[in-house]
């Protein structure tokens, strides 16, 4: 699928700005962003429920913008299920086949096949009001898949479910994708959902695509301040490049020293040839930072080391999040995973003096400006 220069406005409000994307056949692709960023509008354009003001949309080299939704080989699963309340599970799933006048004997076998795929074979004669939220969504997915589309569009399909059920359904959705192998385009505002199941993610904000990449690329190498903040937790600082030196490596890489007004001087490696005097943003993920009451015994020159005091520890069972005050004003978030049982309980407490350290390789430069 190729999306090229798609724009869309509602009145004077421009929802999408020259959107361009290439989505591979069989890919699990997510459109991720906050409410109002344009991701659902883009999905509706792909489905045929909305028309763009400009641009092209091609499925397998065929321009589909002039085609109605039922001729696009793309079916949609909505967040509110959109089931017929007066029909049984069987009839809800069979409905697209009956519209196509498929013979009854084929309908029965096809419906059985897709009810088994979605683990709903034991509920064929129930009505939607007899089902849980997760079961209703399975029926909606079976109905969307039974016409064997080339693309399945999922518009925040799990948002109406509770947290534990969402996680369970997300795994099932990924398994269904692996079994049938068609293209899934998944709209969500939930970063963890997108990171968990996607082959690639497009992060959107205010009608623009800010970055496209694998979950690892999006999380570890954010392209902008917004992406760094939106995908998981991070510490983000503005600064200026103080110095740059090339590293002795096969691929071009540099060691940059940054002056961070709220923190001090830090070291960060980068593949971009930044220049002294450039203004930029620097990000370091909380789980990349080592926190300890003892000064780390290391002589490595690429380690950033700061002394601070615990302003707030938040214990969550599997981890503790620390807010550490450095230079009596700057709060740095640190996450410490609890991998081992401790008889003593937490060893770092409120107001403790602590050392924070991280490698220059673990930070990342974003939003370089002149």
> Which structural class fits the helix and strand makeup?
alpha+beta
Give the CATH H-level superfamily of the largest domain.
Answer: P-loop containing nucleotide triphosphate hydrolases
Low-confidence stretches: none
How much helix is in the residues?
10-25%
Description:
The protein is α+β, with helices and mostly antiparallel strands. The chain folds into two domains: 2-229, Rossmann fold, CATH 3.40.50.300; 233-369, OB fold (Dihydrolipoamide Acetyltransferase, E2P) (Beta Barrel). 23% of the residues lie in helices and 37% in strands. The chain has eight helices and 20 strands. Helix 2 crosses helix 3 and helix 2 (89-99) packs parallel to helix 4. It is elongated and about 75 Å long.
Quick structural summary:
The chain is of the alpha+beta class. The protein is built from eight helices and 20 strands.
Task: List the defining traits of the structure above.
8 helices, 2 domains, 370 residues, elongated, 20 strands, alpha+beta, 6-stranded mixed β-sheet, 5-stranded antiparallel β-sheet, OB fold (Dihydrolipoamide Acetyltransferase, E2P), Rossmann fold
SSE blueprint:
Elements: E1 2-10, E2 13-22, E3 28-32, H1 39-47, E4 54-59, E5 62-63, E6 74-77, H2 89-99, H3 104-117, H4 133-145, E7 151-155, H5 163-180, E8 183-188, H6 191-197, E9 200-205, E10 208-213, H7 215-220, H8 225-230, E11 235-246, E12 254-260, E13 264-270, E14 279-284, E15 290-292, E16 303-315, E17 319-326, E18 330-337, E19 353-359, E20 363-369
Parallel strand pairs: 3-8, 3-9, 6-7, 7-8
Antiparallel strand pairs: 1-2, 1-4, 4-5, 9-10, 11-12, 11-14, 12-13, 14-20, 15-19, 16-17, 16-19, 17-18
Helix pairs in contact: 2-3, 2-4, 3-4
């Amino acid at each position: 699928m190729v999306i090229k220069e798609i724009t869309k406005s509602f009145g004077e409000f421009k929802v999408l700005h020259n959107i361009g994307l290439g989505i591979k056949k069989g890919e699990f692709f997510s459109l991720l962003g906050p409410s109002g960023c344009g991701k659902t509008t883009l999905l509706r354009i792909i489905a045929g429920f909305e028309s763009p003001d400009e641009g092209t949309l091609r499925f397998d080299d065929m321009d589909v913008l002039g085609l109605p939704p039922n001729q696009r080989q793309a079916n949609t699963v909505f967040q509110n299920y959109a089931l017929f309340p007066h029909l049984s599970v069987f009839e809800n799933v069979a409905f697209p086949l009956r519209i196509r006048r498929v013979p009854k004997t084929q309908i029965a076998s096809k419906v059985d096949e897709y009810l088994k795929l979605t683990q709903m074979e034991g509920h064929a004669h129930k009505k939607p009001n007899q089902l849980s939220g997760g079961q209703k969504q399975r029926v909606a997915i079976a109905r969307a898949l039974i016409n064997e589309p080339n693309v399945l569009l999922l518009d925040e399909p799990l948002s109406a479910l509770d947290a534990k059920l969402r996680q369970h359904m997300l795994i099932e959705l990924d398994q269904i994708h692996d079994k049938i192998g068609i293209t899934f385009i998944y709209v969500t505002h939930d970063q963890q959902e997108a990171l968990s199941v996607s082959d690639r993610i497009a992060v959107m904000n205010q009608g623009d695509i800010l970055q496209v990449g694998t979950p690892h690329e999006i999380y570890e190498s954010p392209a902008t301040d917004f992406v760094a903040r939106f995908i998981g937790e991070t510490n983000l600082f503005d600064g200026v490049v103080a110095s740059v030196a090339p590293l002795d490596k096969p691929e071009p890489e540099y060691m940059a020293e940054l002056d961070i007004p709220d923190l001090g001087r830090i070291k960060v490696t980068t593949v971009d040839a930044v220049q002294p005097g450039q203004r930029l943003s620097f990000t370091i993920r909380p789980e990349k930072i080592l926190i300890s009451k003892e000064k780390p015994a290391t002589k490595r020159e690429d380690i950033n080391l700061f002394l601070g005091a615990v302003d707030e520890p938040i214990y969550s069972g599997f981890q503790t999040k620390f807010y550490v005050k450095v230079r009596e004003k700057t709060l740095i978030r640190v996450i410490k995973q609890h991998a081992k049982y401790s008889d003593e309980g937490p060893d770092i407490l409120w107001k403790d003096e602590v050392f924070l350290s991280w490698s220059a390789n673990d930070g990342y430069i974003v939003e370089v400006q002149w």
